[in-house]
Structures are given as structure tokens and as C-alpha cells.
Amino acid sequence: MTSSIVIPGYNPANRVPGFFFALDNSRANTATATRRVLLIGQSIQKEKAQSSGFPQSVLATSISDAASAYGQGSQIVRMLQAYRAIDPQGEAWILAVPDASGAQAATGTIKIQGTASNAGTLPIYIGDSVVPVGVSLNDTASVIANNLLAAIGQNKNLPVSASVDAASQDGSVTVHFTALNSGLCGNDIALNVALLGTANGESIPNGIEITISKMSGGTQNPILDNVLIGAGSRTYDLIGQPWTDETSLSAFEQWLNNISGRWMPQKQLYGQVITAVAGTFGQVLALPIKNDPHMSIMPISDSPTDPIKWIGYLVAQASVSMKENPALPIKDLVIPALPPSSLGVFDDLTEKNQLLYSGLSTFKVGDDGSVLIERIITNYTKNADGSPDNSYLDIERLLTAQVCLQDLRDYLSSLFSRVILLQNGSKIPVGVPATTPDIIKSYIVARYSYQCDQCWAQNLEDFEDGLVVEYAGEGVVRTELPYQFADQLWVIAGNCQFIAAS
Q1: Model pTM score
Q2: Any bridge partners for residue 343, and if so which?
Q3: Distance between CA 448 and CA 481 in Å, rounded?
Q4: Distance from CA of residue 276 to its chain's centroid?
Q5: How many other C-beta atoms are found inside a 10 Å radius of the C-beta of residue 427?
Q6: Do residues 363 and 372 lie in contact, with contact meaning Cβ atoms separated by under 8 Å?
């Protein structure tokens, strides 16, 4: 009697008594692709960043290890610190980039004048980090400046170095600040004093005057043509990076695109980039934004928290949300950043709509001053004909697409990695590892049903009706997959049609 049961690796001609069991995993694969992020930023230890000829991505083990390798206070370490503040255990990789050759570092100054007529604390802010300086009665500007210098030296996480001039004839002293990393990003490091105001116990001691010249003069971001090669062939769901100049945005557009980049079918490496940019409403609208479905830019106005830390926070919140469910709206999630000034915050509905229709993302500030993500969209706003196109509007749709396509690929590869392909209608003898397009189609439908159960996709019947799986010859099966990804709830609008009591 012939059996229809095939036991892999077992010779049916065996006559030796015993118990012989094969382990077959072809129907048991429930694994999902590894979820990981990549953080890209500048190092201040060039010999580390360039030890392999060009930067290589490495697994982030600890913040202290990153600081040792790439320099405490560097862009990449500060971005990792911000990321870990929200997602302490997620798999994160680092691509540390050296400063560009010939780049200039941003500089700024704080001028201190006068003699303290009362004791107190002078709260100097570098970015959103407060550097408190104790002030005694009759302290001169020189004493206060040198105490500030000492306090800065004790805070190794600051993105600047500092030096102090000798006192001028009028007794004033100038403290000079220089960004640790050269390039345009240093221009966004804010210098402030008593930022939170007297309501929060911050003020300048009497008799002291402070004059601030903001950070400026930083030039030339890294050239990324060869740098992004260092990311390798690893799949990253989310990528944080700090550069929004035209050259950098063009480099990322080419690196990620659907035709020749990480999203092309032959690579399937995917990745959505999130970055942040400081600036006024007019300045952010003037950015050289590409029509890129894989780039999201968050304008942060004049938030004292610089874009480097915003990027770490944003990527972390998006990553945590994606791991819970990629179709969940990434909204109302806290960014532990200081809010913009009351004049700087983009809180007007017209302004926000203009940002969102320009491919820029938005945040909101709560009554308690907390900063929350409002909506992260991609830079894609129009199709190839130049007509408005919202198909890639929200980042959640791209994240869901990544998960669905990775899941379908892994599922099919576990079933059809080594099989014979026959045309539909062919008779397949029992036990022969062969398949047809119709059989493949049935498995695709089954997996789409599973994805609908996960709330990643929807409308199974429409998918099944529109799915095309055809034999293309030469061992090739082509499919047309009419995916309908899950949507996010953004707006509930209603007409309150009240009725007057009679």
C-alpha cells in the first residue's frame, strides 16, 4: 500500500526497526521580521568614524560605549541618549559620520556685566540643559564667568566647548561657545538665560546683565554619497538623521527610492527617515523638500531642545508605536522637549494645514507645556504628473506596508523556497514538492486574512477578487497584490444641531 505521507530525510526503503521522526518547520513559521532603527549623526572622534575607510553601522550597546567611541556630547551620542530615554531596550544601530572636511563649527557668546548685589543662581541654558551657576554677593563678572566655565566642564553631555576672555576695561567678560561638531547643525544650539522665568524660580541675580549672541557660522554638512553605504544590507524600519540641506535630502531620496534604492523589489530593505528642523514658519516652508515618500520632517520652531534630541525622541516614539501595531496613529505621544516660545509655536489651524499640505509634520503643546506628536507625514505630496497625491501621506501607511510585505515574503519563503513550478491544472503527485500559481494564490489569500486579523490590512474579499497570480515562464510567478492597508482615525467632525426647549 502506498502512503501519501512524506517524511523529509527518511528513506521509505528502510527495514530496520525503530522510531524515526523528522522535524519539519514548513507550516510553523510565525516569526516576524526583526524591528530595528538606525541613528545617523556626526562623531567628534574622526579616527573612530573612519577606521574602515568609510563609516560602518554598529549595534548600539550602551550610551557609555558610544560616548567612548564617538565622543561625549557628539551629535550621534546625544541622539542615542534621546532615543534611549523613550525606548531603552529596542534594537538600535549607529552610523557615526565624521565632520566634513573644511566645515566650520558654529560659535556664540554670552557677555556678563556688573557685580552681584545679592546672592542667587544664574541659570544658563545650553539647548534645553540648564547649567546653574552659584552667585555670591559682590561676585564680579569675571568670577561668575569662570564659575560658569567650571560648571560647563562638569557637564560632559553638552554639545559645546567654552572659553572665557579676560575682563574688558568696563569689567565685562565674554564667554565663547563652540559647537563640538562642525556643520550647519551647530547653528541650532540655543543659548538662553533663566529660560523658565520667575514662575519657575529662575531669574538673573540683581546687578548682573547678560547679553547673548546666538550660535551661528556653522557651515558644510557631511557629504553622504559614500557614507550611506555603511548602513549595509540590514533592514531598518526607521532612520533618524539631522540634515535638511538640499544635498543631504537628495542623497536620502536616492538611497531609499522604490526604483533603485532600499525599497526596490530586489533589495526590500525599506526604511522611513525622520528628521527635525528649527526655524520660523517662513523658513521651514522654504526648505528644499523633495517629493519623497520615505522622508518625514518635523519643524520644531524655536524649541530650546535642539533638533538632534527631537529626532531621537521622534524615532523612539514611532518605533515603540510600530512594534505595538504599525497601523496605530503615531499621535498624542509625548516628546520630552521644551516647547517653543509662545510667539514661536505653530498653533494656528491655518498654519498647521499649510505645513501638512507642504509635506511637513506637526506637533502640539498642551496646557501644561508638554509637547506631543500631532501628525507625522511624509514629504510626498504629488504624483509623477504633478497632481496632488495623498497615497503616501502618513508615515503609518509606509510602516504598515513594510510589515505586510516583510511578513508575506517570509511566509511564502518558508513554504516555497525549493519547489517545482507547474502551470495551473497540472497534476502534482502526492509527496512531490511542486506548486502552481493557483496554489500560491491560495496561500497569499490566507496570509492576507491573517494580516487583516492583525488590523494591518482590510477588505479580504476585495483583495481576493482583485489578486492576480500568473505563470510568467522561466520559473517566474508574477503577482498583483491589491492591498488595502488599515487607516488611522484622525478627525471626527460633527454638526451639533441643537433643539431649543419649548
Answers
A1: 0.92
A2: none
A3: 10
A4: 9
A5: 7
A6: yes
